[in-house]
Structures are given as structure tokens and as C-alpha cells.
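ok trying again, last paste got cut off:
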Amino acid sequence: MNVVFKFSKNKRSQKVSKKDSSSKVLEDRREKAEQLEQYGVELFPNDFQKDTDVSYILENYQALDADQIQQTEATFALAGRIVSLRSFGKASFFHLNDHTGTLQIFIQKNSVGEEDYNFFKKLDIGDIVGVSGQLFRTKTDELTLNAHSFQLLTKSFRPLPEKYHGLKDVEARYRQRYVDLIVNPEVREKFHIRTQVLKETRKYLENHNFMEVETPMMQPIPGGATAKPFETYHNALDMELYLRVAPELYLKRLLVGGFEKVFEINRNFRNEGISTQHNPEFTMLEFYQAYATYAHLMDFTEQMLTHLAKQIKGELKFEYQSYTLDFTPPWKRLTFHQALEELGGLNQEEYSDPDQAKKLVKKLGENVQEEETLGKIQAKLFDILVEPKLIQPHFIYHYPLDISPLSRKNPRDSSLTDRFELFIAGKEMANAFSELNDPRDQKARFQEQVESKARGDEESLFMDEDYVRALEYGMPPAAGEGVGIDRLVMLFTDSASIREVILFPHLRPE
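nice, full thing came through this time. structure:
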């Protein structure tokens, strides 16, 4: 690079307010970029050939001493972002970060030449560069690449926050996830774990002969869960459509069609509040098995999640927030009413009498509508008194019929259903049941939901005549389950908020 870089200095007063400092830095960087271009420097080339990841160097050379490294004489071409920079006159050290890790780079005038070294000193933290060279160990024994050449690959116009000490403001981290990923390696690791959870889940299901399928995300009738849907409109078809709240009814149509084991991992959408536990767009695993019951799926779920814990955490006991979770089977199993008594501290009369149950819910600070069924009132008691105590894995089963519109009735007590939910760390992780396959019963339950919707319950199900028609062709006895992937990732990454494990969570406008 046979040019001499003489950059003009910004002549504005150096006394700028904190409010103006950010815009000043941006302006200075843009001026520097323009000057580089005037000297013929390409700011965004795409001709550098990277041949090695940082992780390869760390895995294969970190254990070698200085003499062993010198004997290898291997040359590496790395590319990544400058995340720290120290200059000492005729030499500089910087740390280069790629998608696999961080490595120290040494660059000196004697190796790259005076012009190129002067050019290097004009680069900023945040710039993306390519470097080639050989490894050595410094006097402090740090594994380092001695750069024989370098190339600017991308000029950064914005500085990294807090001199690479990390982006601390939580909302800023979620809004600018791209910056969060640059400066917080522990955040990148969470999303590596998320990918591992998805990969291992798929592998486990496929190894048990489940077939992965895809079903519509825009549906004419939203079904499969009691939730308020998002509405949209298709101009060509001249019809309203809904973003799906669950894939359940389509997956069960596939059971009718002859597939016996199916699963889907995809997005669901529910027009509900945003919290540490809820995002309106979230990832769900749903799987269905013909000729199985909810009891079979309890066993299967326990086996699948203990397998995931071993693969991802390496053991069945691990820390989550202030708890030590123990996935060692067998997991505790209680009926819904047993949980109200043993963990909620209620007697049967308190939760079975509608008037007493309503008074108790109100006393606990929760609103109750006059038309709410006893099952819904009991569910509120459960949410308040029981759910926070379900820290270790618990299966809660035999839920009331009126809050389980798609579940098969229990053969011994028709007011209950063959349904379970899995709770871990005080959160619902999964919901499953023996499927209702009697079209007459299903249509009657849909009708009850339609009447509830007419009374103002926006989360009640719609009537789905085509699904009833599918059942009339005959669906084999079956069981199905939904597992919240985001919440599962929260457990395995020790994350308190669902936003920590979603790359781009929904937020209010800035």
C-alpha cells in the first residue's frame, strides 16, 4: 500500500457534552472512512480468503509450549472483528473475534512495512479485518498470531459500547441484538445451546420413528389452543386468515390420513401480553402418536428430557437461577386435585364448591367473572397456590373437562380428562393428553367454546367443521403433546427471561 496517510483533525471544540459525544464519534468515523476512500482504500472488499477458525487454533495449539509452536511453522489466515487494540509505537496488539472465539494478534512495522502499518494504526475497534501469519507465544505466554499481512474487510462506522466491556442496558441489548452478540460472548453461547436443543430434540424424535412435517401457519380457523389469535387478510382469496396459535388440529388430521407418528417444530403466535415468560411469537414442539395414551407420553417425555439434559448439561443435576434442578427419574406425579390439596393447602370443599372457590380467588387478588366455570376458577387457584411450588419436575394430570376442550374424558370420571402438564422451576413446560377422537363429542365441545366466545371470552376456540369432518372419517386412538422450546432453552441456559433466549424478542417502539 504505497500511500502516506495524513489525516486531517476535526477542528471543532473538544469540549462537547455527553449528549453530543456519540454523534461526534459517528461523524469522526465517517470522516475517517471518507479520507480512507480518498486514498484509494476499499472499505468493503470481498476478496480475502479465510482458511481457519479461531477455535481450531485454540483446540490444536493452546496446549503446546513456545518451542513446539515454533516448530510447526504453519501459516493461518483468520478473519474477524477487532475487539481490543493496544499500540506501542512500532508494534501493536489486538484481539480478533470470529464466530468461534477470540485470539490475540501481533502486528509490527518491520513485518508489514511502514505504509501498511501506518494504515493499520488508522483502524478502529469494531473494524473487521483479515490477517495472515504464524503462531508464537508472548513473554506472558499468551498464544498469539504474528501477522505478516492484514487487510481491512469492513469499516465500522459505529463504536462498540463501553470499550468492549459489554452492553449492559437490558432493553438496548434486546433492541440491538447484533451488538449484544458482538460484545457478550455468553449471549452467543446461549444461542449455540438453543441450536443444540433443537438438533437433539429432532434427533431423539427421529430415532423413535417420528416423522417431521410442516403445517399451515396462516389458517382460516385458528385452533388447537385457547388463545387470542392475530388476524390478517389475504387479498387474492378475499378472506380473513389467522396466524396459528397451535398446529394441533392439522397434525391430528395427519393421524386421520394414516401417519402414526408426526412432529413439528415451528412458530406459534398468540395475541397476548409480553412478560418474562411470554412472547407473542414463540417456538413450540408438537408431536402426536397413534395408539398411545397420555400415560405413555408421560414416560416418553421424562425419557426425552432426561436425554436432553445429559446431552446439553452433561448431567441430570444442574443450576437454574437459585435452584438446583434434579432431572433424575422417576419424576413426581400428582393429579390436579391432589396438587390443590397437597401443595395448595386446600381442602376438597374449598375448591369444589363454586361459591367458596370464587371467594378464595378474589381474596387472593385475582378477578373472577360471574360466568366462569368451576374448572377455570380452580385453574386460577392452581396458578396462584400450586404452580410457583413446582420447582422440581412434576407431572400434574387429570385436569377438569371444562378447561380441556380437546382432551379425551377420563373413563372413570367424566368431569376429568386424561391430560397432563409438566412443570419445572415453577413454569409450565409441556401440555399433553389422550386425544378426543369422537366427532360427536368434539362438535359439542366446539359448540360450548363458541358460546363462551359469544359471552366475551376471546381465547375460546372457534367451530372447525372440517376438523369434525376429518374425525368422522376416523382418527385412531392417540395421544399428543406440546413442549415450549423457548422455556426449555431457558432452563438449559439458566435464563430468567424468555427474551434472553429469543434472538429478536418483540418490544414496544423506541
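cool. The CA atoms of residues 350 and 360 lie 8 Å apart. Residues 185-344+386-501 form a domain with the BirA Bifunctional Protein; domain 2 fold (CATH 3.30.930.10).
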